[in-house]
Amino acid sequence: MRTFHLTWITFFVCFFGWFGIAPLMPVVREDLGLSKGQIGNIIIASVSITIFARLLFGWLCDKIGPRISYTILLLAGSLPVMFIGLSNSYESFLLFRLAIGVIGASFVITQYHTSVMFAPNVVGTANATAAGWGNMGGGVTLIVMPLVFGAFVGMGYLDASAWRYAMVVPGVALFIMGFVYYFCTQDTPAGNLSDLRKADPNYQAKAKSGESLLSVCKDYRVWALFLAYGACFGIEITIDNIATLYFVDNFHLGLKEAGIIAGLFGMMNIFARALGGIFGDKAGRKFGLKGRIVILSVFLLVEGLGLMLFSAVDVLPWAIAVMLGFALFLKMSNGATYSVVPFINKRAIGMVSGIVGAGGNVGAVLAGFLFKSETLSYRESLFIIGVVVVGVSVISFLLSLPKTVEVSQPELQPAMEKIKA
Predict the structure, then answer these.
(1) Are 310 and 319 a contacting pair, CB within 8 Å?
(2) Rounded Cα distance, 73 and 181, in Å
(3) What is the pLDDT along the chain (421 residues), one digit of tens a residue?
(4) 31 shares a domain with 152
(5) CA contacts within 13 A on the Cβ side of 18
(6) Total domain count for the chain?
(7) Does 343 reside within a domain?
């Protein structure tokens, strides 16, 4: 499906722009004279603004549809990516990094669009695959941006200028994708929202019957998923930021070797997140929504235990193996979370996606403060995070309380009977 592929490719480009500056930070640090505390603030800023952006764009998707919402985000988000090279101080760089963080709202639009484009029996797989292949952009960025930087150095630019010009590349890519997404996708299988409103006189009345933000916020299931996504995607962003430093400091590797290992963590999204959605759909077809919830809880539990084990391993081959092990369940937890989201409130998918997506960034911000602490080592911080993730896996079982409604199977039965006939 054209929309599916354009959605994940666009999300990939968004991740490329969002984290494009991350592998160039050693050069930026030297150029701007940044301290460890300032770098920590920059990392937190890059994910904190996304909390509010995801809430905003989740609401916009319900109002104007994903196609125009994505176009607005891509065109506006491309500007700080291209112009971050104008920074000449810590304060200006921090503001640009904060603005770039808005691009993280692309996740909510991606999940919204795939949720409305696919049927309930495969929506988890579609959501997880699109998000996973898009998240892979974070791993590719660690490899490609240093090459782009090196190309500018090879053309004769000094390091202080090369990193600035290198950031123009992902910015231009985002700008181009804004037009591609507008002209080559549609809001729903039936067409764009604007056309549907013109064709159906009752469409506006039907749209107004959707849930309000307040009613969505009153649903405890939304906040349970908020915590769950903070415990998986929030930790993924955190590991992306600290993995290279962790292996350099604890295993005395060079920057190149540590970067390759860190890249493996991000590249696992090519299949791991999709597996979470596939397992979620299989459990949903057999056991209903409760099956999807149990799968999510189990994945979170193993992720937490793996993080605790990873923090204690001091032999490099075993550390890599354990990292890939907990990364598998972490990314499957991401996919499993959004195999549940479309069934929580079908009249407010955008708002639910936005709140749950914001939870991922809240988790990243909280974890970032642990790693910024001068009194905690990276190993101790990872262990604490592992304990918290195990706790969240237990809380996620709240979703299986009586309020859970089996919405997928009854809706599928008439269609399945016709197919069989």
Answers:
(1) yes
(2) 11
(3) 888 899 999 999 998 998 888 878 878 888 998 887 787 788 888 888 888 888 888 888 878 889 999 999 999 999 999 999 899 999 999 999 999 999 989 988 998 898 888 887 888 788 888 888 888 887 788 778 888 988 999 999 888 999 999 999 999 999 999 999 999 999 888 878 777 777 765 654 444 445 566 778 888 888 989 999 999 989 988 887 777 778 877 888 776 677 778 878 888 888 888 898 889 888 888 888 888 889 999 999 999 999 999 999 999 999 999 999 999 999 999 989 988 888 887 777 778 878 888 888 899 889 888 877 778 888 998 999 999 999 999 988 776 655 544 444 444 455 545 545 5
(4) yes
(5) 33
(6) 2
(7) yes
Does any domain span residue 273?
A: yes
- The rounded Cα 35 to chain-centroid distance in angstroms is 28
Kindly state whether residues 271 and 348 are assigned to the same domain: yes
**Residue type at 132 in one-letter notation:** G
